[in-house]
């Protein structure tokens, strides 16, 4: 539209005013006539104006007489308190008219007329409700029509774009509603500025235009009033109602809208100032484009440290709104400031949505990846039976190795018979086309060592008990190890070929340990075998398969392979070699892998028969090469997508493990028991108990198990007679337990192993003291323990007898030091003559606190005067044992 056209044209609202009709009506009418109008602010050509004037000439003539009705209706409407619109009021006006001067009758009703009036008022009320409904319907319909029309025009006007159309819809709506009435002071200023600019260009409208902007409100209302029988007050309510909001709420929303677009508004105002004489229609078009907020997400997945801008993107909200929201919550921040987890959660709660912190997956945490694959396998649809993995345990010389050898050599299928049996830490035997995997390291030490390192590969334990020897200490240890790991036990009563064999006795003995044969009403499988002759060995295999079936051991051969190292070594020609048990998925040649802190690609894969294989399915043991370094037994194997990732993960892990080596792993000790219980929410305190005789073991076990502190109970993982050995230490370590010894001592190797692992061994010779200590530790009240430490040794050179004082010894400090508070032992010819305390310590005539090596001193001992020349004095202190 050209500027010159604009100056001579009349705007729709002016025409509406002239014709005494509502803006929206005239807009509608103009559109019906096919004029291109966007709102009541649109201007028309003379021709168009004439057409509308023509149309309304008759109509307005007809309408005029109604004005008399308006006056009548006001009073009536006030009485009914209605919020009706024109139509309704018109009807009411008609009704009231029929009552002949209702005012008079209401104020002074005659008795005969009262009933009639009541009836009439009742009818009015009913009609008022009906009318209200109708008004609502017609309003809704009108809005829908507007939107439809706009939708149609939108297609016709691609030049202007959807944004312009949307703005027009809003403007169109605003014409009918209260929104346009209130402008924020800033906007009004801008409006005035723009309009003043316009005035300079428009002589014809000079007297009207300057007033127009600030008079928008009165203009609108007057326009409505002139066409409406409703008083201004009613009218305001009416319009508020149309929008389903109270005026104040609506106002707040308006303000919020304005604030939301404050920034864009500023830019717009700047632009308006620049473009002098721009048509007012542009102002309307540039009303804040009400950004339709996209719906909030259901859950806000955030990272700590995000700022309002980041959150704005996630919440589909303006950052300014986020800052404002936080401000309302009492949190002062700007758009770029990092926010704490609590703040973000609070914000999410304010928006009424859930929040969740994004979990960063650490791909170097292969234990986690391993667990993840384990979980994946549980839910897999491709599960197939997998061979059970078996460990053989038992007392020394009961026949574990003989059994393993027999199995390895006899149960090899025909086509594999030619292969040279490899020693790769595990092997498989076949029975009825079903495989069983045996770990080749018998005994509970290896089993628990693996467990201590987090590897739980054994499905079933075969406990070998020699029928001619019966249950022995390591038999019991093995039972405890298996039970602690929650692995089912199958008992192989061995050496039944021996003349002195008494299998039933073994079965009786084992009942004491909870292993009751099925024949005797229990659920433990017993098989009587001879490992030497091979008798019933197949039965044993059969029973293992039966147990495996009961356990429903399954795996998904299609998923990513995971496994555990059974053994690893450095081979001269082949570099690092690892014997791996594949546990889930299928391991293939060329797979990029990480094992423990090493990485590489599976180069050569060899099975237990020494044959090269291309893949290894679940429960298959294989030897692999291609690793960067030698991993450790119990290390986990995880397959990665590419070698590059595997390398970076492996290297990262190697770095991490170096760091970890510096930190000492802390086991549960009596000293840290209470804190650990609290920290790890322990419900059980594990104890490995060793005593000198069976009687004291039982007594101690019973008393310890009775301790109950705040729902935490003592769990005796193993109780036995004899010195504390390496097996006890391994078991305690694997079960995060500590060891109590009663009248027993640890062996040298067990002691050093415990020291290395930071494992607590407590030695007692009084039962109640042990019980008190455990109970006190569980209650967090354990007294610090003290240990005697010899700090110096002295030789008596001279003695003086002084009455009242006793014997004074003149002595030289040979090594260390002696203090006034020291304990002192008098040793003569290697025998301790007296053990007491220093009574006085002097250098020459002065009392001193301490005398060091190389100095002489005068010393008296409390209650002891029998000191002789050449006696050795041993100074000692009680020092607090540092918490392990
Ligand atoms: N008569 C007979 N002797 C057996 C049987 N099983 C094992 N032996 C013998 O018992 C002895 C010990 O057997 P091993 O297999 O070495 O026992 P182990 O449990 O492996 O012993 P460690 O490795 O020391 O723990 C060997 O001389 C075997 O020949 C059997 O079923 N019958």
Automatic annotation (TrEMBL):
Keywords: Cytoplasm, GTP-binding, Initiation factor, Nucleotide-binding, Protein biosynthesis. InterPro entries: EF-G-like_DII, IF2_II, IF2_N, P-loop_NTPase, Small_GTP-bd, T_Tr_GTP-bd_dom, TF_IF2_bacterial-like, TIF_IF2. GTP binds at residues 394-401, 440-444, 494-497. Residues 60-70, 267-276 have a biased composition (Basic residues). The keyword GTP-binding applies. GO terms for molecular function: GTP binding; GTPase activity; translation initiation factor activity. Residues 385-554 form the Tr-type G domain. One of its GO terms (cellular component) is cytosol. Its main location: cytoplasm. One of the essential components for the initiation of protein synthesis. Protects formylmethionyl-tRNA from spontaneous hydrolysis and promotes its binding to the 30S ribosomal subunits. Also involved in the hydrolysis of GTP during the formation of the 70S ribosomal complex. This is Translation initiation factor IF-2.
